[in-house]
Amino acid sequence: PPIPTPCRSWGPRVPHERLPKGFPGIKQLPWQMAEAESDLLPPASCLLPSKAHVLLVDDNADMRDYLTRILSEHVEVEAVADGAAALAAANERVPDLVLSDVMMPGLDGFELLKALRADARTKEVPIILLSARAGEESVIEGLQAGADDYLIKPFSGTELVTRVLAHLQMAHLRSEALHQERTISRRKDEILSTVSHELNTPLVAILGWTRLLRSSTPNPAMLMKALETIERNATLQAKLVQDLLDISRIAAGKITLNQEPVELQGVIEGAIATVYQAQATKDICLECRLDPLPITVQGDPDRLQQILLNLLTKAVKFTPQEGRVKVRLDVNENQAQIVVSDNGVGISAEFLPHVFDTFRQAENSKGGLGLGLAIARHFVELHGGTIIAESSGVGQGAIFTVNLPLISVNL
């Protein structure tokens, strides 16, 4: 029968003499027009990273065969003859896109669309309807029914393939965006939980000792222990808050350095003095080998000491009782080189690339927010330097090497 007009083919019309043999004197059918325009289709590698799965639904065998042929270069096509078969196929394997005729016996295109939208697994799958019903009202009816697109026969093969690929690409981008949103939301919840726990832990100790002191008359030894515990936990909480503020300022680009010539020997000695109590408690041997000649860099002395303090705190924390931590300061060409190493728990090969990431902690972590190394890296980079982490694996210790631009070496 004649194909209704008008049609929405945006591709060039095909001269009658170019129609495939076997159709003399018959008006151009949709698949004939598409075949004649096959040289206009985009390459198979266009848009999609890999072949998507398209479910094609049409009761016309010739149309199914031809649409399968023009789409197969770009996507994986599963063709079925009716709506019921389409539902069964979608239940077996959720497609990336559904391309369906409207007028079909049994379950027609609109009923198929309604059923797919009612299923949680397929409700977001792009659906393109094909129909011989011309006119704006038909298009509006299809879109209002929930279709993502609506093509009127006869259509251009170029247009069909382009629309299919465009909807697949948009669906892929939506899926990626949703995945990223869920990942960010889950990560935010994890961070809030960790921050709450880490801030609450020292508070518990402080409140516990405060209540004990109020409810009893402590002897001098107990009083001293209570004050030391309260001070230690208050200092820990203050550092946690400071780390959070630093990360916030770093993210906002609001960190400023008060730069001046700084001798690194003094910076390292100050950091060592700060971690002395924790080191002594675990009976850790801390070896320090510093170049006897002054090694000077241009930098912020407070931030430089924070870098060293974070590295040393991490080394002492993850080194076992009676372990060993080494600090070395040398000159390497035009760089001041600081190396902090330990024989502690080490870093797995899987986690090593993420060791400087914000809020990232290894599975063998012993608490904390996972901010110290991230802050150290940012401060090193603000000073124009580099920091690298090395480890032979779990149980093999770790080595952190900081290189900073040298001002001068007094020889």
Descriptive report:
The chain is of the alpha/beta class and 411 residues long. It has three domains: 53-155, Response regulator (Rossmann fold), CATH 3.40.50; 194-252, Helix Hairpins (Orthogonal Bundle); 260-405, Heat Shock Protein 90 (2-Layer Sandwich), CATH 3.30.565.10. It has eleven helices and 13 strands. It has helices spanning 30-36, 61-71, 83-92, 109-118, 136-144, 157-215, 220-252, 264-274, 276-281, 301-317, 372-382; strands at residues 53-57, 76-80, 97-101, 127-131, 149-152, 260-263, 285-290, 295-299, 324-332, 335-342, 386-390, 398-405, 408-409. The strands form three sheets. It has a five-stranded parallel β-sheet, with helices on both faces. The protein has a five-stranded mixed β-sheet with strand order 7-9-10-12-11. Strand 4, helix 5 and strand 5 (149-152) form a beta-alpha-beta unit. The model is unreliable at 1-47 (pLDDT under 50).
